[in-house]
Each structure stands twice: as C-alpha cells, then as structure tokens.
C-alpha cells in the first residue's frame, strides 16, 4: 500500500475521497435518525434507507452518462452537485417536512452510484494495473475505519446540535473532495461517441459482465452471497435481544467489533489478491461470512465477537477483489457502465434481503435463519473458489540491481583497433 501512496496523483485522490467518505459515513444514519425524531416511526425511518437504495434501478443510465464524459471533471461536478442537493435539508423543521428528507435521500442515492462509477474509471486512469489492488485496498481500509466512528459521530452530532450542522459538515466534505480533485493534472481525451443507439449502449455494461467468464462467475457467486448477507442486518437485533439477553444498543458494540475486522481485511486485501487472484480474493471474502453466520446461530458472546471479526474481514476482501477484477477486465470506455451495473447487481438483492429479513425474523427462529445464511454463503464461496483460476495471481516483482562488472584498466587504456579497409 505504501507504494501506491507514494504516487502524488493518487495521494490527492486519496485526500479527496477521505473527505467525501467521511461526509457519507456521518450522513446516512443521521438522516434515518432525523426522520425517526420527527415522526416517531421506525418504519418511516427505515424508509429513508430504502430511498437511498431505490435509485439503483437507474444504474445502467448513470453508467452510460459517466462513460460519455472525462473522469476528473465529471468527478468534480458530481461532488459539487452532491453538496448542492443537500441544501434543502436546511428547510426541514417538523413532521410536515419529512418528504424533503426522502427526496434528498433519493437524490443522494443517485449521486452515490454516480460517484462510484466515475471513481472506478478515475482510479484505472491514475494507477497502473499492477497497483490497482493496492489502491482499492487503501480506500477500503479507510472506508472500514470510518464505519467505526462515522455513523456514531453523525448520530451524536445530530443529538447535540440538530441536523443543520450535520448537513453543513457533509457539504464541506463534498466541496473539499471537489476542490482537491480539481488540483489533479490528468491528461484525458474526450470519450469517442459510440455508433450504437442509446438503448443498446445502456445494456453494454450488463452484456460485458455476462460475456466475460471471470466477471460472470464473480457476479453470480457474490450476488447469491449478498442476497443472503442482507438478512443479517435484521437478524443481529434478534441475536442480541433473544440470544444474548441484552439491550438493542449493544448492537453498536458488535458493529464496532465488525469494523475492527474490516480494518484488518482492508490492510491484507491487496496481498490476498496478489496471491489468489481477484476471483480467489472474492471467494475468500464470501467464504469467511459462512462460518461467521453459523457461529451466530449459537448465542455465546465470545463466539459472537469472533464471528463479527470474521464478518468484518469478509467485506473488504470481497469489494477489493470485485473492484480490481472489474477495472482490469473492462475496456476504459465501458468501465462506468460495468461498475454501475455491478453495483446494481450486488446491492439490489442485498436491499431486498434486508427487507425480507425483517419479515422472516418475526416468523422463524433467528438461529435457523443464521444457519441458512451460513450454509448458502459457504456454498457461494465454494462456487467462486472453483473459478479462481479464471484470474491468475500477480506476484510482486522486486527489482534487484545487478552490479556492473568492473572493466580492466588495461583494457580501457588499450587503443582501439581500426578495421581494415
């Protein structure tokens, strides 16, 4: 990771993303808390998360727009636009204004897809292929670290001073990201216009995912895994309440433990990609989630801590493996559509499973559901592991300077023979 951070252009991008990811981490939970405070309804608060996820349906269109523009100016414009779209939140005062939060949450979800799609292309443009796993690993480590403090900080700031300061801080983060990336000196050409009509262009990302064997296997395996992983968002509350006999606030402690595991996974993810390949790293991440879920079916605190650490390690491994695979196996002119389509394929099932988990936990024993999640994710991980040879490991090549052989002084001093005419 130190190698990629030595690059001045990536360091600038890293600072920008640190600011925008900090804004993102404090904002999302705080919006749901704000709705809960204004309405007193858990259902309406949960609908805030759905409003953020719903724009995933527009991912093909977003990717098509991203691929028609240069990456750096588009990234700057998208961050400026995100800061502007938060402005209506200053007008929220009571329950009658909740609709404003929902609208902003939906627009923010659209912005999130856009920034993710353009970021994938920008990293590909700035970083050589052999350092892509390191770049993605650095960013995932920071993201996991912010998960430890960001949501709690956002909720605490809202409780202390209200939503206006939170909105101002989030806007500052996105504006900072735009300003820093504006300093990047990147040589980009305007993408060539495709000869295809726009409906065909919209589906090009999905066609590429389906046509590449490694990407197809990755999306099928991880899509199945994420479909089951989403159940745990609701099951964890039943685990704490019914299994451990503790207050719901104890979930925050377990989330912190998972965040520690995420930091560890982020630090080692690039090394796993180099040793096992992108599909191998993705398989390891999904496979780690299986025994973690199975352990949560047996409610013991020490076992739960181990399980949450393992689940935390799982997430950055899967994301670094998948993002690096997409960046290395996708033509630059198609990367926005492929990244956006992959985000929709993965996040869409997970969003459905979060809602389904909330319903199923009221009907079935949570331990049975955790066991189902564990078995299914283990099977998905084994399916991915079977395709690990579709991507080859990339060992780090260490340059060892070879000392030059010293020349004999007499040879140097001898006059050169002239060629015979």
UniProtKB/TrEMBL annotation:
Keyword match Transmembrane: yes
Annotated TM spans: 12-35, 47-66, 99-123, 167-187, 219-242, 248-272, 279-298, 304-326, 338-360, 366-385
InterPro entries named in the record: MFS, MFS_dom, MFS_trans_sf
Compartment(s): Cell membrane
Domain of life: Bacteria
GO cellular component: plasma membrane
CDD domains: MFS_MefA_like (cd06173)
Membrane topology: Multi-pass membrane protein
Gene Ontology MF, one: transmembrane transporter activity
UniProt entry keywords in alphabetical sequence: Cell membrane, Membrane, Transmembrane, Transmembrane helix
Keyword Cytoplasm part of the UniProt annotation: no
Domain Major facilitator superfamily (MFS) profile: 1-190
Protein name, entry field: Major Facilitator Superfamily protein
Organism expressing this protein natively: Micromonospora chersina
